[in-house]
Amino acid sequence: MGRDLLAWYDANKRDLPWRGTDDPYAVWVSEVMLQQTQVATVLPYYERWMARFPTLESLSEAEVDRALEVWQGLGYYRRCRHMLEAARLLATRGIPNDRDGWLKVPGVGRYTASAIASICFGEAVGVADGNVQRVFARMAGCPDSGAELAQKAQDWADHHVDPKRPGDWNQAVMELGATVCKPKAPECGRCPLEPECVARQTWAVERYPARRHKPRSVAVFRSAWAPFLDGRFGLRRTPEGQWSAGLWEFPYLDLADGESPNLEALQNACAAASLESLGDFKHSVTHHRIRVEAWLARVEAKSGELEWFTPKDCAALPMASAQRRILKRACRLLGIEIDRG
Fold first, then answer.
1. Nearest to 133 by CA among 109, 153, 107, 161
2. Quick one: pLDDT at residue 338?
């Protein structure tokens, strides 16, 4: 199996900017960005990141806002903060050269540790991301899902990884899952492992992996306001434990399902002399479906709980996309042009 897979990979692998290097920093950045994110989405972010922070040392010296600024739009911002924390640690202690060492790095799990150890240091350990789990489930006809499938796929990868080319073998099976053994409409005729595939032989390819129960959508209704005084907006850091922790946001109130905002209560909450509607919009975070009603709040005094920035400075701050939409609408209502966002 390994020989056929590697031959296929050598002939068909995509030309990606993190391939062809054994620099553990570059591989680490790519693997973290690729977690729960497709290659096409990652490519421009990876190139911008490496242009801004080309080395571990340059990242270790970066301010959190500068790192989040480059990352913004990629989502799952905890990944970025963990990378910055880890870079500062690694710049002092040095870079590990095996999976066990990488597992001690903040924010690094078994998959990322295995990928770096195999690609950069030749350690014969397998990886089992979602693509590998799908290939394994079809190859073995495995009916499991979730944690059970992940563990069996990891055991399979560790057993079959090519000891002479472990990094290439891992990238090959991931590449196979991403480009041939796809979730829908798999191209079995192009697969080098087709003769050994249980799902293919039983004409049941798309039954694998078994579908996991998806969590029900949660509806969130939110009133957010952009405090404005003396040419500056008031913003706060998103607190730890929230989706966009560490980024900047406008204050808001969450409402009960179906509840309409009480404008008097909202005006009291933001201490606004007047409120002007910025309209509403919807966005999604994981399985949460969020409807935001946004307001421009012209306040009479600056709250000490907020930090105050000019519109131009706001445009340069790391903000989630929903917050940037509020900023743009507020600036449009105020007749202010901003260069960015």
1. 153
2. 78
Closest to 249 measured CA to CA, from 239, 259, 261, 263: 239
How far is CA 290 from its chain centroid?
19
Q: Rounded distance, CA 234 to CA 88, Å? A: 31
**Residue bearing the bigger pLDDT, 30 or 245:** 30
Strand partners, 134: none
Q: For the whole model, what pTM was predicted?
A: 0.78
Tell me the C-alpha distance between 141 and 187, whole Å. 17
Catalytic residue among 31, 69, 175, 249: 31
Amino acid at 55: T
Helices (H), the chain: 2-12, 24-33, 39-52, 56-60, 64-71, 78-93, 99-102, 110-121, 130-140, 146-160, 166-179, 198-201, 263-270, 311-316, 321-334
H or E stretch at 282 = strand 272-285
Q: Active-site residue 31, yes or no?
A: yes
pLDDT at 286 over 80: no
Residues 6+ away with beta carbon under 8 Å from 162: 2, 6, 124, 168, 169
In the predicted structure, residue 269 carries a pLDDT above the cut 90: no
Structure tokens at 110: 């078994």
Confidence band of 75 (pLDDT split at 50, 70, 90): confident
Scanning the structure block, which residue is given the tokens 């790192």?
A: 67
Q: Which amino acid belongs to residue 323?
A: Q
Strands 252-255 and 218-229: antiparallel
Separation CA 307–CA 305 (nearest Å): 7
Treating both helix axes as pointing N-terminal to C-terminal, what angle do 24-33 and 110-121 enclose, rounded to 10 degrees?
A: 150
Average pLDDT of span 197-226: 87
For residue 220, what pLDDT is reported? 84
- At 242, the pLDDT band (50, 70, 90 cuts) reads confident
Length of the chain: 341
C-alpha–C-alpha distance, residues 36 and 165, integer Å: 26
Task: Provide the residue type at 170 as one letter.
Answer: N
